[in-house]
């Protein structure tokens, strides 16, 4: 594996780790609200969170380019703050990846919170625990399987992104060229041996992720029986 491939792998892992951490931080309060609220806004908010599941990546990438471009709201704000433009930069890639992988993190955590039910929080309240203490000492430990699933899916989905990262990040070596884009470059250049190395690695990685995910579910089901 040559230097450019190693750089793409390193950048992909760096992006996936950062995006997964950010998604767990951002997605947890969203999942908690969706699991507990009875507001009429639950439907629209849930639909917005799940939108990347059905929206073509190029559509999301296009609108992110418009919003973060020189004439967009975000683009004008970042320029006024002296930060420049986000498209074709690593921070822009992080933002796009967070938005695109959001449902893969929010939904497993939301399901875990919903499966927990109301009873644990009611018991914690009866023991005079504040809502904040009950959340951190009761809800989070009970929802731990959902967090593990969310972290696995969020990380894996970020590693496998192509359309959004190409639209927002472009193809800049050592800055925005991730593994999926690197494979595309090798195929375009008819460098099939190099493409095989990276593509084969992605297949093995995807299999191991699914094995870990379904292995956990199988073990949980076995222990319950």
What is the topology?
Blueprint: H1 3-36, H2 42-50, H3 57-68, H4 73-80, H5 90-116, H6 119-126, H7 131-142, H8 144-159, H9 163-169, H10 179-188, H11 192-224
Name the descriptors.
disordered C terminus; 11 helices; 225 residues; MetI-like fold; mainly alpha
How would you characterize this protein structure?
There is one protein chain. By secondary structure, the protein is mainly alpha-helical. The chain has a single domain, classed as MetI-like fold (Orthogonal Bundle), CATH 1.10.3720.10. The protein is 78% helix and 0% strand. The chain has helices at 3-36, 42-50, 57-68, 73-80, 90-116, 119-126, 131-142, 144-159, 163-169, 179-188, 192-224. Helix 1 runs antiparallel to helix 8 (144-159), helix 5 packs antiparallel against helix 9 and helix 8 (144-159) packs antiparallel against helix 11. The longest helix has 34 residues, at 3-36. Mean pLDDT is 88; it is low at 221-225.
| Helical coverage, percent range | over 70%
Strand content: under 5%
Identify the CATH homologous superfamily.
MetI-like
What is the general shape? Answer: globular
Radius of gyration: 20 Å
Element-by-element helix/strand order: HHHHHHHHHHH
Q: Structural class of the helices, strands and pairings?
A: mainly alpha
Main beta sheet strand tally, sense and closure? none
Number of strands: 0
- Distance from N terminus to C terminus (CA atoms, Å) equals 46 Å
The total count of helices amounts to 11
Low-confidence segments, given as residue ranges, are 221-225
CATH topology: MetI-like fold
CATH architecture type: Orthogonal Bundle
Using the coordinates above, name the CATH class. Answer: Mainly Alpha
Mean pLDDT: 88
For the record, the count of structural domains works out to 1
């Amino acid at each position: 594996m040559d230097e450019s491939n190693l750089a793409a792998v390193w950048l992909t892992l760096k992006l996936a780790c950062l995006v997964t951490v950010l998604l767990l931080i951002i997605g947890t309060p969203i999942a908690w609200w969706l699991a507990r609220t009875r507001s009429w806004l639950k439907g629209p908010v849930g639909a917005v969170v799940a939108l990347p599941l059905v929206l073509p990546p190029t559509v999301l990438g296009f609108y992110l380019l418009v919003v973060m471009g020189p004439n967009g709201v975000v683009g004008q704000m970042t320029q006024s703050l002296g930060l420049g433009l986000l498209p074709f930069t690593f921070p822009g890639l992080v933002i796009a990846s967070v938005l695109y992988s959001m449902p893969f993190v929010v939904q497993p955590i939301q399901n875990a919170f919903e499966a927990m039910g109301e009873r644990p929080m009611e018991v914690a309240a009866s023991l005079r625990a504040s809502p904040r203490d009950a959340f951190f000492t009761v809800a989070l430990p009970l929802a731990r399987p959902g967090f593990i699933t969310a972290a696995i899916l969020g990380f894996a989905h970020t590693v496998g992104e192509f359309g959004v990262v190409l639209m927002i990040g472009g193809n800049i070596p050592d800055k925005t060229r991730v593994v999926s884009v690197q494979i595309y470059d090798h195929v375009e250049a008819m460098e099939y041996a190099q493409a095989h190395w990276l593509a084969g690695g992605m297949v093995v990685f995807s299999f191991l992720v699914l094995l870990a995910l379904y292995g956990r579910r199988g073990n949980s089901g076995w222990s319950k029986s």
